[in-house]
Write a structure and sequence with these properties.
Blueprint: H1 2-19, H2 26-29, H3 32-43, H4 71-101
Length: about 100
């Protein structure tokens, strides 16, 4: 009887100890210090200098929105602009697909 009660007590204690085991958390392994060091080491042999891009700071198109417009009008203008951009992208994709088939 004592052996049976000892086994009944040992089983939950063993399960409790396994629950306290080590957990590998990926977020601690991917911290900035673990990522930047290999990147810096990989770039040590690079001797080329960066090339200036004259269009890097070019002004973005402002669209047709003006300060006098209401919020709803600005939203509609932005939506129209996005739709035009999507249509142009779709046309470009269609054109490149057609060129690839020839």
């Amino acid at each position: 009887m004592k052996l049976r009660s000892a086994l009944i007590l040992v089983a939950p204690l063993a399960l409790a100890l396994t629950g306290c085991g080590r957990s590998d958390d990926a977020s601690t392994e991917a911290e900035a210090d673990t990522v930047e060091i290999p990147a810096n080491e990989a770039l040590q042999t690079v001797t080329e200098t960066p090339v200036a891009d004259p269009n890097a700071n070019a002004a973005l198109p402002t669209g047709d929105a003006t300060p006098e417009m209401t919020e709803d009008e600005k939203i509609k203008t932005a939506g129209d602009s996005a739709a035009d951009t999507a249509a142009a992208a779709a046309d470009a994709m269609d054109a490149s697909a057609t060129e690839g088939q020839q």
